[in-house]
Amino acid sequence: MVRNLTCVHPGELIEPALLPLLAGAKQNGHTNGNGTFQKVKSTIVAEFERTYLQETLDAADGNISRAARTAGKPRRAFFELMRKHGINARR
Fold first, then answer.
1. Residue 66's closest CA among 55, 75, 79?
2. Which of 50, 51, 70, 52 is nearest to 60 (CA)?
3. Domain limits at 29?
4. Is residue 29 part of a domain?
5. If pLDDT is split at 50, 70 and 90, which confidence band does 6 have?
6. Does residue 59 form part of some domain?
7. What are 37-84's pLDDT values in tens digits?
8. Closest CA to 60 of 12, 8, 14, 3
9. How many separate domains does the chain show?
10. CB atoms near residue 59 (< 10 Å)
11. Cβ atoms 52, 43 nearer than 8 A
12. What does the angle CA 69 – CA 74 – CA 75 come to, to the nearest 5 degrees?
C-alpha cells in the first residue's frame, strides 16, 4: 500500500482518507455491524484490490508489466486479478 501511495501521490502527505481500507470501510458503512465478519472482510478486500489495481495501472500508464512490478506480483497473477475485478488496462 505504501508503494502504491507513493507512486500515485508523489510528494504528498498521506492522509487517512487515502488509505482505502480505512476510508472505504467507513464510507461504505462496513464498520457499523452490517453483515457477518467474513462478508464485510470480503467486501473490503475486494474494494481494496479494485482500487489498488486501478491506481497502480493508472500510475503505470496502463502498462500491465510495469504495474505488476510495482505491485510486487507476477504479471500473470496481476492480470488474473484485473480480470477478476473487470479492470481493463487500455486507456
1. 75
2. 70
3. 19-84
4. yes
5. confident
6. yes
7. 888 888 888 988 999 999 999 999 999 999 999 999 999 999 999 999
8. 8
9. 1
10. 18
11. no
12. 80
Amino acid at 41: K
Q: Phi/psi at 51 (nearest 5 deg)?
A: -65, -45
In a domain, 2, yes or no: no
Please work out, in degrees rounded to the nearest 5, the angle formed at the alpha carbon of residue 61 by the alpha carbons of 54 and 56. 30
Q: What is the pLDDT of residues 20-40, one digit of tens each?
A: 665 555 555 555 566 788 888
CATH of the domain at 33: 1.10.10
Altogether, the residues listed in the chain come to a count of: 91
SS3 annotation, 48-67: HHHHHHHHHHHHCCCCHHHH
Residue 89 is assigned to a structural domain of this protein = no
- Report how far apart, in Å, the C-alpha atoms of 54 and of each of 21, 48, 88, 90 are: 15, 10, 9, 11
Distance CA 51, CA 65 (A): 18
